[in-house]
Design brief:
It is built from 10 helices and 13 strands. It is an alpha/beta fold. Helix 4 links the parallel strand 8 and strand 9.
Length: 309
């Protein structure tokens, strides 16, 4: 049954992005003028949280920041989006995750970031009541102790879990995948983890590790998935004028988690997530283009799908 106001708990990375848009990447290092500049909150789990909140979910976030100016800005922006930030650990003397992102006019990016992995990993300040109040959990691989804690409790009480299995920390996936219902990889991450460039074979390998649903986002080639019981599907991407692909995967995961919390089937969840991801790409930064549910539905009603493989 669909939740009237679905509740989503996101777990993982929150960061701050400084984004410059340029005409094109130069062939050698040199000074280039910026066409646009933006400072905005970022991070995989945090962007997914904003995507779910914009769609209408009640969202909480478990994450880590430092006690610096950037950490305060991260929390302030999330609070303005209506996200509950009581699960964000603020660590004295540590620097908050931040990225510098260069985007060219076709949306390709260069990202230089510092990570949260150097921060304390203690989870004692987190409340399992947040898990119990959620209809679905969405986690990335940037705070493994917290994701494991949340996913393990979710499994024990029957809450579905969505994992953003992007690049990094893949040595921990054999421990985390058995606690995961929906494992969604980026294509580079799936290929790196499974050791094959054949996405169908890669998804089969992920299914063998105990998940109920394995999927891979492939940019303009769309979303390929398997329910790990013999049924599979392919959701095309949508044609949009791309400004910036930063956060497109985060948007997909947040929207997918929202859809599962709403009680949608996999086909409907993949379609909504693909629409939200495409709409995000029409604006600079990881959040400016994120739509409301009404706007996403209107987009789906008229959007042109790109051909799939």
């Amino acid at each position: 049954m669909a939740a009237a106001t679905p509740a989503v708990l996101c777990i993982g990375n929150a960061a701050f992005d400084r984004i410059h848009r340029i005409a094109a990447f130069p062939p050698t290092p040199m000074k280039v003028p910026a066409l646009d500049y933006l400072e905005v909150g970022g991070g995989m789990a945090a962007n997914a949280a904003v995507a779910a909140a914009r769609l209408g979910a009640r969202v909480s976030l478990w994450s880590r920041v430092g006690d610096d100016r950037v950490g305060g800005a991260i929390i302030d922006e999330l609070t303005q989006e209506g996200i509950a930030t009581g699960g964000i650990a603020v660590h004295a003397g540590f620097r908050s995750p931040a990225s510098s992102i260069i985007v060219d006019q076709v949306g390709e990016r260069l990202i230089v970031g510092n990570r949260a992995h150097v921060m304390p990993s203690d989870t004692t300040m987190l409340s399992l009541e947040d898990v119990e109040r959620a209809d679905v959990l969405m986690g990335d691989l940037r705070w493994l102790e917290a994701v494991t804690l949340g996913f393990r409790h979710a499994r024990s009480i029957g809450r579905p879990t969505v994992l953003d299995a992007d690049l990094g920390n893949h040595d921990q996936l054999p421990l985390l995948l058995p606690l995961t219902d929906y494992a969604i990889f980026s294509q580079p991450a799936l290929q790196q983890y499974t050791g094959t460039t054949n996405d169908v074979e890669g998804l089969a390998k992920v299914c063998a590790e105990g998940v109920a649903h394995a999927g891979v986002t492939r940019g303009s080639a769309g979303y390929l998935w398997s329910d790990c019981e013999g049924r599979s599907g392919e959701q095309p991407a949508f044609a949009v004028d791309v400004i910036d692909t930063t956060g497109a995967g985060d948007a997909f995961h947040g929207a997918f988690a929202f859809a599962i919390a709403q009680g949608m089937n996999v086909e409907a969840a993949a379609a909504l997530a693909s629409a939200v991801s495409a709409m995000k790409c029409r604006a600079l930064g990881g959040r400016a283009g994120l739509p409301t549910l009404k706007k996403a539905r209107a987009f789906l009603a008229q959007a042109a799908p790109l051909p799939t493989s």
